[in-house]
Amino acid sequence: MKKRLLALAAFLALTLAGCGQSAQPQQEEASTPPATTEATETEVTAGYEDGLVTQVASLKGPTSMGLSALMTSENEHYEFNIYAAADEIVPLVVKGEVDIALVPANLAATLYQKTNGAIEVANINTLSVLQVVTPGDVEMSDLTALKGKTIYMTGKGTTPEASLRYLVEKNGMSWDDMTVEFKTEATEVVSALQTDPTAFAVLPEPFATVAIQQLDNRHIALSLGDEWDRVSDNGSQLVTGVTIVRKEFAEAHPAAMLQFAADAAESVAYVNGHPEDAATKIESLDIVKAPIAKLAIPRCNLVCMTGEEMRTALSGYLDALYTFDPQMIGGKLPDDAFYGA
């Protein structure tokens, strides 16, 4: 147990250090500087393990964009698979066929309950991607500008609705102060904006970027993530995606976990620092076309948030979702073990 705690502590420390880098991801073992944690009884060093290919699953969209530089590298120590729906990833994690997965934050909490604590969160990989798209002449300093407006969005009964309801209440408003029309797909929201030039929309990236590129006289007037930061009084943030790991895998392969921390953090830093080049990588993975990806990357809030900052941001967000619907996070708030060591 002492060895595991030391390994995961070093994992968090290395992830934080990697976030500040912007070089290309590591290609060979020899090019990766070792990170170590020392103790009287044991020492864990970041590194690839002979014969181990870590299975990593992610979703098509912003949660995969941060890892795009690593995914397109020649690193043979990982096998990456991108899925269209989170429901495809869940059984693979449960059966042990996936070691690490990048999933929606609320799904991580639900999976933690369903597996009796067999997974834990390694980091937050994506903060808010929700944007308020308005007519071009509309300026917004807060959500009170939505009063009396028609808003198109997706996600009825899910996290987008829960997040908007939380923010509406924090702004002293009622849901009835506006008219919300839910659509099944983001593309339907874009079509509705084209039909109604006075309408507003809440769209996730990269669809918000698609909307303002395709439609005349439209712009992004407000980020719901920025609005959450403004009204939050507990340090929580609007979280889109987290990275989870099977505890069994983390305990069996502490060196590989340290190495993944370094590689993933470096990839995120590269994508944020080189959006034009990263966009071509993202298109090659069939996530989104390069011109849209280049514009969307700065608004996707790709991060590698760990430690106490992660715990504070994520726990407060899950608490807001729990207030909206406990079943959205598996029926109850996760305990401390959910947040790793």
From TrEMBL:
Residues 88-278 form the SsuA/THI5-like domain. It holds the Pfam family NMT1. Residues 1-23 form the signal peptide. It comes from the Bacteria. SUPFAM superfamilies: Periplasmic binding protein-like II. Keywords: Signal. InterPro entries: SsuA/THI5, UCP027386_ABC_sbc_TM0202. PANTHER family: ABC TRANSPORTER, SUBSTRATE-BINDING LIPOPROTEIN (PTHR30024:SF46), ALIPHATIC SULFONATES-BINDING PROTEIN-RELATED (PTHR30024). This is SsuA/THI5-like domain-containing protein. It comes from Butyricicoccus pullicaecorum 1.2. The lineage of its organism: Bacteria, Bacillati, Bacillota, Clostridia, Eubacteriales.
